[in-house]
Amino acid sequence: MAASLWMGDLEPYMDENFISRAFAAMGELVLSVKVIRNRLTGIPAGYCFVEFADLATAEKCLHKINGKPLPGVTPVKRFKLNYATYGKQPDNSPEYSLFVGDLTPEVDDSMIYEFFVKAYPSCRGGKVVVDQAGISKGYGFVKFSDELEQKRALLECYRAVGLGGKPIHLSVAKPKTNRVKTIEYNQMYSYNYNQYYQQFQNYYAQWGYDQNTGSYCYSYPQYGYTQSTMQKYEEVREDALEDPMPQMDVSEANKQFIEQSEELYDALTDCHWQPLDNVTSEIPAM
Q1: In whole angstroms, what is the distance from residue 95 CA to residue 103 CA?
Q2: Is 86 left (phi over 0), alpha (psi -120 to 50) or beta?
Q3: Which GO CC annotations does the UniProt entry carry (predicted)?
Q4: Do residues 80 and 62 touch, judged by C-beta distance below 8 A?
Q5: CA atoms within 13 A on the CB side of 191
Q6: pLDDT by residue (tens digit) across 58-103?
């Protein structure tokens, strides 16, 4: 039974032939490639679906080449792959992740996976976190489908050697929290616009137009995707986990705090009423 992988972060010139050749150069044979395009403009949307002969082949390919540089591409671009099922494996079972720190630059996704899967068969994959230039930040994550194996790995592999040039640091990964507080305008205002726009819903729907996003919707049921799920997948797929003990630059944080405090103080002193000589003094113009 055929299975598909999602591939993202594509440049406009990366068409079906280019992607097929890229996989072939890595020793992987694909059945087909479908680059998703805006159906009105024909402009590529920046991602595609790559079909393989079966799930085992797709899974092997994901672990083997995800995060590796695309052959012949300058500046460096990397394979950005995931399961084409809303960011999860088809069984949709829970995942348990560990933070992996003190990684040396040569460590990539496949090396993390191969290091752990030998002793922990429930390992589902590894991910090295990289910067915009594709350079490793020195840490990553490894995920398991078995919580007991996650806990075993934490105890047995802490400061273990063999993954890169240094002993690795392990800790339980935690979901990234949203530190930005947003205002829920629907709690501030009691207007209900549904009664005004309900009559237009069928009109928009027949053209595949999403009123919420202001864009046209695409549907690819063979991959288990619609435009809305693709957008959500993009949002949750990356950076869903964070370092449980992030390093803070104390000097830089203090500097920013002092600068903000001085700005606030200056703003307050500049806006207050200036003292008058007496009650009959003329108030200066602002």
Answers
A1: 22
A2: left
A3: cytoplasm; nucleus
A4: no
A5: 5
A6: 988 998 999 899 998 888 889 999 888 644 455 567 889 999 999 9
**Dihedral angle computed from the Cα positions of residues 232, 238, 241 and 247, in that order, rounded to the nearest 10 degrees:** -140
What are the tens digits of pLDDT across the range 153-175?
999 999 999 999 999 999 998 87
What pTM does this model have?
0.56
**In degrees rounded to 5, what are phi and psi of residue 285?**
-70, 145
Residue pair 45/38 in contact by the 8 Å Cβ criterion? yes
Amino acid residing at 84: A
Of 62, 125, 80, whose CA–CA distance to 98 is shortest?
Answer: 125
Helices (H), 140-249: 147-156, 185-188, 194-197, 201-206, 227-237
Phi/psi of residue 163, nearest 5 degrees:
-115, 90
